[in-house]
Amino acid sequence: MVDLWLKDFVEREALERLQLQRLRSVLERVYANVPFYKQSFDAKGVKPSDLTCLADLAKFPFTMKKDLRDNYPFGLLASPKRDIVRIHASSGTTGKPTVVCYTQNDIDIWAETVCRAMQMGGLTENDTVQVGYGYGLFTGGLGAHYGAERLGAAVVPASGGATSTEKQIMLIRDFDVTAICCTPSFFIHMIEVAEKMGVNFKDTKLRHGFFGAEPWTAEMRRIIEEKTGIKAHDIFGLSEIMGPGVANDCECHNGLHVFEDHYYPEIIDPDTGEVLPPGHEGELVFTNLTKTGMPLIRYRTRDISSLTYEKCKCGRTLVRMARVSRRSDDMLIIRGVNLFPGQVESVLLDIEGVSPNYQLVVTRTKALDELEIKVEVAPEMFTDEVGRLEKLRALIAANVKKMIGLSAKITLVEPGQLERSTGKAKRVIDLRNQNG
Ligand code: DLL
Fold this sequence. Notes:
By secondary structure, this protein is an alpha/beta fold. The chain has helices at 12-33, 35-44, 65-70, 104-120, 139-151, 165-174, 184-197, 218-228, 341-349, 380-383, 386-404, 432-435, and strands at 84-89, 99-103, 128-131, 154-156, 179-182, 208-212, 231-238, 243-249, 256-258, 263-268, 282-288, 299-305, 307-308, 320-321, 326-327, 332-334, 337-339, 354-365, 368-377, 409-413, 428-430. It folds into 2 domains: 1-327, ANL, N-terminal domain (Rossmann fold), CATH 3.40.50; 332-430, 2-Layer Sandwich (GMP Synthetase, Chain A, domain 3), CATH 3.30.300.30. Strand 8 and strand 9 (256-258) form a beta hairpin. Helix 1 packs across helix 2, helix 4 packs across helix 5 and helix 7 runs parallel beside helix 8.
């Protein structure tokens, strides 16, 4: 049994000493080796030696996604290229992808933190872990894979798109898989397909799910746990900083513990860039403390969260970040009202007979924004009397109006009508720039 989990319980004072030492060293490393950081530190008039306490990090400049693109592909390397052993990249639908490079040291740290995430969820070397995240340039598959191997578990590398959903289910059943790693939306799809195949997850050995790579809600967790009897864990991460396993929630489900001995978090006001105190909501910013290949300083994630340093009931001392339910660049402004897809998810999943499969379509007619919410509802809604469907539509529209303040067109569709993804779900189709 690997005892990496002990690191989650270290005294805060010792942890902060370690963070300060690591922070100094990474600032020195990038200042000496990465021209981009030399220039940006100089432009701000700061030097690595200006860091005398953790709060001094606020003096240093941010790194943005654009900086990775501008330095495509290898401009931000802090190690010689020969020391790079892995390269991942975002799929980037248009233009250059964002590239991230890892040394062997980085791959080892990544495996360590994913392993700790899985241990936090209760896994041991006795588990069999099926990885249903995509293997490839996306960090989900290989990240989860190396973490599960580090734990000593048996890994089933099913991948996302490469294995059919039916086969994923067959593998879970036949290989006595105890834990699945995939996006929450893909697991919802697996539940539907399993029902059609006559497989009840409650009759299999599956006990845990590590879901992430996209926002999901507490309501979604409840549905997954009720339908399958498994424990649904929230695993967070981003490729720029490492991949999956930057943070994970413990059994208290009261925020995600950040593996802050490797990834140093801050919350800032997205407009002013000012660091916000614990408990305040703002944009998550991460600094790599131990990465050597391409460490990033104060990387702005666009994810909205908050931090709490209060000791968790589980006893872990690691800071907790609130689950990420939205990104600042996810926000839709519809007729002047700010809307995040997660808000719609929460409203929908509180209503009986409504499935977790939904999509928001935004259009513009004569300069007026229109929001359509397409949602799949239980099959019996369609077979019963028509009035029932109408009532459900009216209830959803009323709740959306009440909770979000928007009038939306609600389109109820039969199960299976909306597109499924084996990776990140596409919740929003914004057609405003095309037809208006
Ligand atoms: O999605 C890494 C990952 C893979 C995380 C598998 C967890 C599991 P990227 O493709 O770079 O990396 O996307 C990162 O996804 O900034 C968040 O907006 C979102 N995200 C990731 N995990 C969560 C989560 C991977 N648990 C972006 N909850 C991040 C909410 C998440 N959003």
